[in-house]
Write a structure and sequence with these properties.
alpha+beta; 3 strands; three-stranded mixed β-sheet; 3 helices; YefM-like fold; about 25% helix
């Protein structure tokens, strides 16, 4: 596994993504103590994510979106 500082990671971002795509793991460290803050792994090595429940209304409520409904990100966010 390759270990890089945040600065090194930013400077070599495209190269790092290519390495991860070829199966290599990369650890990113932060600060003077080089504390590990992230590990990039190829998608086939990433842990499986369990399906999430939708909260207290799961199975109790439904909604439908009318065909042709359009909303911009700004409308959704109230910007």
């Amino acid at each position: 596994m390759t270990t890089l500082s945040v600065g090194e990671f930013k400077a070599r971002f495209s190269d790092i993504l290519e390495q991860v795509g070829r199966g290599k793991m990369v650890q990113v460290c932060y600060g003077r103590t080089r504390k590990p803050v992230a590990v990039l792994v190829p998608p086939d090595q990433a842990p499986a994510v369990a399906a999430r429940r939708l909260g207290p209304l799961a199975g109790k409520a439904k909604f439908r979106v009318k065909a042709g409904f359009k909303m911009t990100d700004a409308d959704l966010l109230g910007s």
